[in-house]
Amino acid sequence: MKNKIKDLRKANKLTQADLAGLVDTTRQTIISIENGKYIASLPLAYKIARVFNLSIEEVFDFTSEEE
């Protein structure tokens, strides 16, 4: 699943550790989500979106790669 977390994080001058602390997860989880190796749970996706004052759909691209 594609996402805009890395770009949003950098635009807001947050490190991966900063974002992880704000959403109560680990830096490794943020790295994995940014790299597309891990799909965030709905509660975590919501927390990440809230940090940036965006909707989940604005942060994560839920369209399948087959479309």
From TrEMBL:
Question: What PROSITE patterns does UniProt report for this protein, alphabetically?
Answer: HTH_CROC1 (PS50943)
> Which InterPro entries does the entry link to?
Cro/C1-type_HTH, Lambda_DNA-bd_dom_sf
Could you list the residue ranges that cross the membrane?
none
Residues forming the HTH cro/C1-type domain are 5-59
- This one is known as Putative transcriptional regulator
Q: Does the keyword DNA-binding apply?
A: yes
What keyword terms does UniProt attach to this protein?
Answer: DNA-binding
Domain of life, source organism: Bacteria
For this UniProt entry, the molecular function terms from Gene Ontology, in alphabetical order, are:
DNA binding
